[in-house]
């Protein structure tokens, strides 16, 4: 089951998908850092919603130097600054594009800062690409001792 909103995610929680774990929405909770840092070494699972992306787009977003090429391509929500005097001098219209959203924003934005690879077997799992209730239940069962679940929306 793919949760499109915080309310739907909470209903998933009440159905027993998240069992005894705490579910937070990153976009709705301003005190998220205080909550997660109150527990020593919390175990956190991030659930990130978003559209499907092609294999090539995913590979490009995994390479830090190439990830900015995907900004403004329709696969992400992009915020842009007002025209800058000096920091964006050579950029188009003197604005800086900031990804915020489901593909390049959130946890995936880290790929623009660090070089990371997932396990190749992850890409073969249809359940991984199309979340469903049974798959999430199994995932949560495997995450023993999980302190928090964050929904990136």
Concise synopsis of the structure shown:
With 153 residues, the chain is of the alpha/beta class. It contains five helices and five strands.
> What's the total helix number?
5
- For the secondary structure, the number of strands is 5
The biggest sheet amounts to: 3 strands, parallel
- The amount of helix comes to 10-25%
SSE pattern, N- to C-terminal: HEHEHEEHHE
Tell me the strand order in the biggest sheet. Answer: 1-5-2
Runs with pLDDT <50, length 5+? 12-20, 113-118
Strand content: 5-15%
The termini sit apart by: 15 Å
User: Globular, elongated, flat, extended or rod-shaped: what is the shape?
Assistant: elongated
Question: Structural class of the secondary elements?
Answer: alpha/beta
What is the count of structural domains? 1
Mean pLDDT: 59
Backbone CA Rg: 17 Å
How do the helices and strands line up, and which of them pair or pack?
Blueprint: H1 6-14, E1 22-25, H2 32-37, E2 44-48, H3 55-61, E3 78-80, E4 97-99, H4 126-129, H5 133-142, E5 148-152
Parallel strand pairs: 1-5, 2-5
Antiparallel strand pairs: 3-4
Question: Can you walk through the features of this model?
Answer:
- InterPro entries: FAD/NAD-bd_sf (IPR036188), GMC_OxRdtase (IPR012132).
- With 153 residues, the chain is of the alpha/beta class.
- The chain has one domain.
- The protein is built from five helices and five strands, in the order αβαβαββααβ.
- The strands form two sheets. The chain has a three-stranded parallel sheet with strand order 1-5-2, covered by helices on one side.
């Amino acid at each position: 089951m793919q949760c499109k909103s915080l309310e739907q995610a909470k209903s998933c929680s009440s159905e027993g998908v998240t069992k005894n774990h705490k579910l937070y929405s990153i976009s709705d909770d301003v005190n998220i850092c205080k909550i997660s840092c109150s527990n020593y070494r919390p175990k956190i699972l991030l659930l990130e919603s978003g559209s499907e992306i092609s294999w090539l787009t995913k590979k490009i977003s995994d390479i830090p130097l190439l990830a900015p090429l995907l900004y403004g391509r329709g696969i992400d929500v992009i915020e842009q600054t007002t025209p800058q005097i000096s920091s964006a001098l050579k950029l188009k219209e003197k604005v800086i594009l900031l990804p915020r959203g489901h593909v390049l924003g959130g946890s995936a934005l880290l790929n623009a800062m660090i070089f990371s690879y997932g396990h190749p077997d992850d890409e073969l799992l249809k359940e991984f690409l199309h979340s469903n209730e049974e798959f999430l239940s199994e995932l949560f069962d495997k995450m023993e001792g999980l302190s928090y679940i964050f929904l990136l929306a």
